[in-house]
Design a protein that fits this description.
alpha+beta; Rossmann fold; eight-stranded mixed beta sheet; five-stranded antiparallel beta sheet; 10 helices; 36% strand; globular
Length: 609
Amino acid sequence: MITQPQTQETALWKERYRVSGVWWAELARRAPSRGIVISTGSGAGQIYAWDVLSGEQRQLTHRQDGVFAGTLAPDGRHVYYLRDEAGSESGHYVRLAWEGGAEQDVTPDMPPYAALYRCAVSDTGSMFAFTPTEANGFPLYYLDLHADGTVGVPRELYRSPKLIDDACLSANAELAVVATTEHSRARQYSLLAFDTADRRLIDSLSDLPAGSLRAVMFAPLPGDHRLLYTADRSGNTRPFIWHIGSGERIELALDALAGDVEALDWSLDGRRILLKQIARASQQLYIYDLATAGLTRQEQRGGTYISAQFGPQGQIIALWLDATHLPQVVALDDATGAWRGTILAAGEAPPARPFSSVSFRSSDGTEVQGWLGLPLGTGPFPTILAVHGGPHISIDDVYDPDGQAWLDHGYAYLSINYRGSTTFGRAFKEQIWGDMGHWEVEDMVAARDWLVAQGIAQPAAILVTGASYGGYLTLMALGKHPELWAGGMALVASADLTSEFQDGTDWSRGYLSAMMGGTPEEKPDQYVASSPITYAAQVTAPLLVIQGRKDLRCPPRQMERYAEKMHSLGKPFEIDWFDAGHGGGENEMFIAFQERLLGFAYRVLSGKI
């Protein structure tokens, strides 16, 4: 049954967006009684200083557009974040004292820059490193942080013509490590280690072409030059330790664990490593003893760990959630693994329905996993097929106001981890490289067929939706398989990859070159084949696009070209422009977007479009 959208301000689905949720929690590595949380308690994401032992929080940022990422220095003295304008993802790194006060620009003399990947602060608080993007490449900069509160001039330590990431500093800042794609065929990374005193390259590590490496963190001991990193040459992500200078690399003895294993933290005494195993959508935390190679399993109650660290008083402090529980900070006993309970919960979750893990076979036989939610009643139902952004992330068992809003209105809801998603092995992630939009759409079609075969979905009432890369896939699916969909709804989407490359930032050009295996000049046919605008004439289902005027990842012109073509062809196409960038925003903006989607889907299925 098609349900008319609930538009009243007190609607339960709207309250799920407004309830205060914790987006991120982080402890200071060397002062674990200090932490930060990023919470939506004020209506938009803001950074709060968090006294871990007392639970007290103090709001540090007050930005109208919100702050959704931040880094707490290991000594707990300062918080760093990229201050951009209206979600443009271009600006300057600034820092605030954990106790509060005015912001300090750490790169005041630099032009605005995009810095989408993580920054690094040494354990001693004496050095800051970051990886912005510039017109002539991808540099690694570092600067001194002085005891009197002043900052030094940024110095270039390394520059690559291709994407770099994962800046890491050793405890005393003698060494810096960065991951580079300079010598890879796509987004495969190697590691480079530099002496920060004389900027000399002192060591390198690579698994090319067999796999990719990603830096995690240095050992916490002064003068200890061991680096914890992950490698996927086996087909799954696994943690290793690299002795920089000697070239020795040690794989953690984890043959008993299936799937991917991520390294999350390294204890201050240097003896233990905190791990997260991810196998077929199931997560489990472990502590690994470096001396004995023993594993201590931490108690798990289903759901998803967003982050976890060694905390004060013999605890593991983790940010946990599932489909019916808001993100909350929980404590586990690091000796026994026992669950100690919730220590920080930003709000009480309005009622929500659970999701179940499902799987199905795609066109080539590959197994694809997803999360299915069912509304009250008996199917088949009108159905929403959701595709996440990224693409190199995964959707887990999480509290999802978008999905719950569809369930409230009588839709079944399936969010899938299509080809390109992480935690399903290297081959699964890399299969889309050089052929964007092909295997992902094959997986979407397979998901649709499975929903119909299982009696879950009404065949003529399946709509597809997604944001960012998910918005791109929405457009691709409607164009390549127009007969399968009742409608589509895309947010901040890519529509014309050639125009996006021409108008994008240095970061987005580097990203597209890595994903596509070259530039539009080098791979013109592939850019055409992977662009939704190529298939615009084939679209038959009604389509809604919501796009940001200040979006630097998916610039306006490429979507304007798509909109012009759709209108000229007389397609059932609607586009809403909003005055912001690719990410961020206030809770009320997300509510407005979802209300627009609900109204659009209702009009589509009731024959009013």
